[in-house]
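Lab channel / #folding
Pinned by the channel admin:
"Please post every new chain as: sequence first, then the structure tokens as a reply. Keep commentary short and put observations after the output so the thread stays searchable."

First post following the new format, from NK:
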Amino acid sequence: MKTPSAPHWLGRNSVPLMMQRVLLALLPFYVTSTFFFGLGVLSNALLLIVFCCLAEALALAARGRDIRGGLQDYSAVVAALLIAPCLPPGTTWWVLAVAAVFAILLAKHVYGGLGHNVFNPAMAGYVAVLIAFPQHVAEWPAMAASADGISDAIVDASTGATPLDTVKMQLGQMRTMTEITATEQFGLLAGYGWEWMNLTALAGGLWLLRKGVMSWHAPGAMLLTMGLLYFGFYAFSPATQPSPVLGLLSGGTMLAAFFIVTDPVSGAATPLGRIIFGAGTGALCFAMRAWGAYPDGIAFAVLFMNMCAPLLDRYTLPRIYGHRKRP
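Reply from TO:
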């Protein structure tokens, strides 16, 4: 009997199973997002799933690969559901199509498909439309709590600034954090609605950690680095700096920490490399929020660290037992 070629051992987490668990972990986040932002969140997600799956099928067909098998690994669906919350609810369909095509065709299959992509496809697709169509990507609904505790839209041309936008703009107008966070756009911990979306993303991420889908190194390092930086600046000047809680529960912090920087393909592979990768992402995100042109900056931070991942793997490989030097 012929011995099959290596590898001979299959891990407990196959790619489809891991992707399915990621989709389940995203479910609470999407329920919360839909509650605060409406059905536009779901329309983004559904259209992106269609566009990403179509782009995946076209790329697989052009490369002579099995289309059915490629779609059944759910990687295109996960990419779609990670792009969707980065864009305003009800984004124009052709903007979503451009994001999907860029993510799947240019950021994924140009490099060889799943397992070979250098950059995180979801973040690459989002950055592409953020740079190309900034007006379409900036028009977020402004949310606030009504008197009875139910979320309402603040109607001002149907759109408004996100809480991170508001903090950046009003600090530039010499207002204090106490004055800024006293408005109805902010809730108990951070921006109204955004705090709960981040908490549900945190809950989903902790469930993935428990299931062994990811390791703690990258998300833990990212959140610890951001928390320490926010704490340091806030302790020095609480009137002009956001608190650590507001910083960690605003924007896409928790979504990025548990669903983006944990990407096993575009991130670092070694434990130490993952810690450096997460810490670098957190530091860059904080710097871009504090001094950059964009209010969040997570996507740019992730893409920059994606470029550094091969170098991190090279210099953080553990020493092989019996050898003095690393390979």
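NK: The beta strands are 142-145, 151-154.
TO: also worth noting, Residues 146-159 have pLDDT under 50 and may be disordered.
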